[in-house]
Amino acid sequence: MSDVGLSVDGRNGRRLARAALLVAVALGCVLTGCKGGATRARERSTERSQTSDAYASQARDLRTEGREDEALALLSRAIELNPTLTVAHLEMADIYEERGDYDLAERSYATAAGQEPANFSAQFGHGRVLHLLNRISEAVRAYLRALAIRPDDYDANLALATAYIQIDGPSQALPYALRATQLNPASGPAHANLGSVYSALGRHREAVEEYRAAAELMDLTPNLLLNLADSLGKLQRYEEMINTLDTANRLEPTAAAHERTGFAYFKLRRYEEAKSAFAQAIAQDATYFPALNGLGVCRLNEYLLSNKSDVAAHDSAMQYFRQSLRINGRQPRIVDLLARYER
Fold it and tell me: CA-to-CA distance for 235 and 15, rounded, in angstroms?
């Protein structure tokens, strides 16, 4: 019995040994296969990454050569291989922005900004195209994210100040407008922007200083001169206002500049010159209702100075006011003048 038992145990032992050997071999094969699969996966990922990088690099070269459509095609292939390749999204966004395709640019910048929140170019670029799309509140948030990354960037400070002015936030705009002039004291646009902020805050003396600093640093533009003239008018410096507007009209005659000139002459009680300036504004643009109002006020003034005996002046004033209201009916002060003086 003991021999038989030994014999059975021996056979069982040999079977267990063979089974263990087979399991070990099989396990070794599985482990080797897993290791090989992981290696191959890593290799494929590396290859895709290298290829996508190469596509992005080639796209930049094509863009330099002006072959933007081909560059966009390569960038699309790069993103297909590696959707998280931020440089490809940024390059694509730049191309779309240059083309004026701001909706497409915004999507690409948004993707890049989402993938790399600490990427200044992505955040600032996103803010810039949002600004161009007139999505001002969103642009402000993007600019703030950009400035959190790079607080001393001139362009971002200037852009944020401009955006804040557009959403009626001059007090919020002020520190960024000031910072822009500190970062780039030789920038005419920065001083002009700061002037606009001061003007919106009613700080017209400081506005005049900034507008004049801008005028010394950049080519004069009608818009800059009109802004300067308006602040001079608020300070009752009417002679300077007229001289500034004369310069604006020499650069580019506009109805607005002529009308503002008429206003300044009226304030100086030079009524005939005021009427002439208002008439020039109407000749420039027959629908410019502020100039019609100016002519109406001049004629109404003549009527009142005549102790209300100059009926022709009265009737002419009422005609100008009615003509103005036909162009823009939302003028309560003109409606009030008509109600008070129309016979």
Answer: 108
